[in-house]
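Dear support,

I submitted the protein below through the web form. The confirmation email said the job was done, but the results page showed an empty box. After a refresh the structure appeared. I'm attaching both so you can tell me whether what I see now is the final result or a partial one.
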Amino acid sequence: GADSSSVASDLTSGVEDITATCQAFAALKEDGSVVTWGTSAYGGDGSVFTSGPVSSVVSDLSSGVVKVYSNRWAFAAVKTDGSVVTWGDKRYGADSSSV
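What the results page shows now:
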């Protein structure tokens, strides 16, 4: 599993659901925020990644998330306003900017 020590204090309470890619995790909390950890290329730091981080969605994950989905390489979060935030490996669904 991925090392969660950097976010351990964020995981001590209020976690409603956890989903994973092959090398990263995302925890949905009661307050609508998402905590991520693991390998950056697979969404562990909340960035969209190609051969290096190209953008970060961490601020978009700080509130209003109702559900997080994942495949092997990327995450998608549905927000209360119906918008979708994606992150992880751009080649496998993490880049929804053209949708």
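Response: this is the final, complete result; the empty box was a page-load delay. The first strand starts at residue 15 and ends at 20.
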